[in-house]
Amino acid sequence: MKNNLTKIFSLLLAIFMCQVAFAQQPSISNFRPYDRTGINMFETPKNNNTKFDGLKVRIGGGFTQQFQSLSHENTALAVSKTFSGVVNSNTNKLYEMTAGFNTAMANLNFDVQLEDGVLLNLTTYLSAKHHNEAWVKGGYIQFDKLAFLGSSLLNDIMDNVTIKVGHMEVNYGDAHFRRSDGGQTMYNPFIENYIVDEFATEIGGEVYYKHSGFIGMFGMTSGEIKGALDPVAATTVDKDTAKAPAILFKVGYDNKIGDDMRLRLTASGYMKSSGSTNTLFGGDRTGSNYSYVMELAKDGTNAKPALTAVAFSGRLNPGFTDKINTYMVNLFWQMGGIELFGTFETAAGRSNTEVTDRKMTQIAADLLYRFGKVGYVGGRFNSVTAQLKQFNGPAATDGSVAQFRDSKIGRIAVAAGWFVTDNVLMKAEYVQQTYTDFYGAALATDDMKDYRSGGKFNGIVVEAVVGF
Length: 468
What we know:
Layout: H1 2-22, E1 56-73, E2 80-83, E3 86-90, E4 100-101, E5 105-115, E6 118-127, E7 135-143, H2 152-157, E8 161-169, E9 201-211, E10 214-221, E11 246-257, E12 261-272, E13 323-335, E14 338-350, E15 358-371, E16 375-392, E17 402-421, E18 424-436, E19 456-467
């Protein structure tokens, strides 16, 4: 109880401090705010009319605290094993969790106006589930003007062009603009991100062209979550040790139609032909906003698993670490208070221990009604079908024994939010997630079920958010 009261007091203190800090913030051009006014903003705005009057440093942050009451179950057959002298431990046993507070998460943001049309961003995760210590997300420089080069031709070109370079969040799809990112959860009307979470920070650059609502983007990155000079490790299946860059693109249209309607339609792609540590579907270094759901008890007992080891509860990573080709189409439609955001995604890829590509498909739809600046209510449907390693079968001619079947995960969530101020949001969600066609991994027969077989979790999560 004392620990929970300390967390609540810390949250209230953070809310007070952010209100004081926000009143003193300098104006930064072509910048996405971290508070309510940044919601439904995708790529940063293009405003070349802002007057530059010297270097400015803006310090911002995001704080998130959840209380969850979730329950989970599965129908997987008990598999007995001896751990540390404990006989007949069930390795398919889910951890028996109770209601309580999740680990609070916090971000620290620096946005610096270096020069006219030149912006620097640096984001640090101060507290997260996956990394307990402070951890730099990444940083980049954004050029909306190149006036310092003294070229009138370049100045004319930059009227419609933006350049980003650095170790940064890649702009694949539109869903990542609405996701929770550590302590920064203001943009997400729900508690958690998609089941397959498209997010990675990679070293590279992106070039944008915007004109009359039309959007074009081309980018190239290392395709790795961190710097790496070592070659790809050869395996008996894949002897290619070459590393290829990742290529990404986006085309679309985003504009107002009349006085009360907005339409955005984009198509995106991300392609990488060879590597070993691609993390586009598993690059989050903070963790899920659900804790311990559908996670195994440690060593088949009811010992609590380490939070850092089960930081991504409720998500699925298809494991396309070597080769990946993925495409996403997003629709955003807004009329009055009604808001619709839809996603269709199809991906194929493999790890460097696999012979053939596997496939994954994800669809999602958010439907909300926003009550002006006061709050919102809405629902989300999210479904994933992915070919996963299911069981060991007869050896193939190439020596591979990996067998794959379609597994399915579905989620339905209903949420409501209340903006206490532009910087403070309270939201609550009821969620239900189900697992279908999960068979035994590395087991001899279909009767030996994967621990997620017949899996289900549901319940309520309440979240307090501060963003400034």
